[in-house]
Amino acid sequence: MKYAKIIIVIILIFSVCACSNKALVDVSPEHTPVSQAQQTDFITNPPLKVTETTETSMDRPLLDEMGVVSLRLPENIQAPSFEYSGMAWFGDHLVLLPQYPEGKDFSRESYLFAIAKEDLLLAIENPEFELPVKDVPILNSDLRSVIRGFEGFESILFVDQDVYLTVESHGGNPMMGYLMRGEVEGELESIRLDPESLVELEPLSSADNATFEAMTFWNGNLYVLYEHNSKQVGEQPIAYQYSLDLVFEREIAFPVIDFRITDATTSDLSGKFWVVNYFFPGDTHLAVEHDHLLSQYGEGETHAVYEPVERLVQLQIESDQISRIDQAPIYLQLLDKNIARNWEGIILLEDLGFLLISDSFPGSILGFCPILR
Asked: Where does 52-155 have alpha helices with state H?
């Protein structure tokens, strides 16, 4: 099996290079419905993500970028209305989380979707292979009666037979986040949520459409991560630490990272994990004069040309803080013409690489990015 993995990675190095310039599908960011006409405006005259002088831009190195290989989902779960917002491992199955399991109009049966790891490995070897997907009923997912302004689910995480989810609503001032727990029945026969387990997650700014889009688990605790962690928020960023019984334990310092954090992997035994760091050119309120990671490490070749930011940043949970590991981010090779992919889910696939999933516009992308470090 070890040699098979090595062969897969070697094949992917060449296939990514060959495929990386091909357009996959373009996706707009979550919570920001954008028409085709509006997207054309961004492409023609995109807002700046940073303001840098020509001299300092030329001085920075261009970093290697990784292409994302698109894996084939069945057509019946590719619709933009699924708005995938997270994913997590339950044993050897990858579980995909739609923001609205019953659809935004609550008109369909409520399901999450599971894919076997062995099928994912087959799809990575042969991207033409269509992934078999198992429907997983999720019970009590319509929370409109208990959460004012319910806007769906943002992240998911499994610990043994328990499942944890973050929820977003516009019922606060203006937003409010929630954390809740549920139980997996059998081997993913169904998932039953417990609405009585809901706890409030007070947003860390007054920004619209911003709550808690990511979670990680380490050393018996949940760490819930806010979406905006830039200096322009005005305060030291923090994360919330909770017990598995959803008892609040403490606030813990979080590193300053510009733009958005949209999901996180589960932490390894040492407390290391990865987050997706994303900027959509239409989010002018998140534009910064100086992108700190760019200034410190440089950027990828397509990032030097186009306005979106799609990168992966590694963090470390320590006794008194969550810190950023001192290394360059992994930059994902961008699509042409400022077409941004809003990666809303990330998970590690053994030691081979990352699985990523995007949200809604104009379809859903399940992608694989190999680790070549």
From this structure: 54-59, 117-125
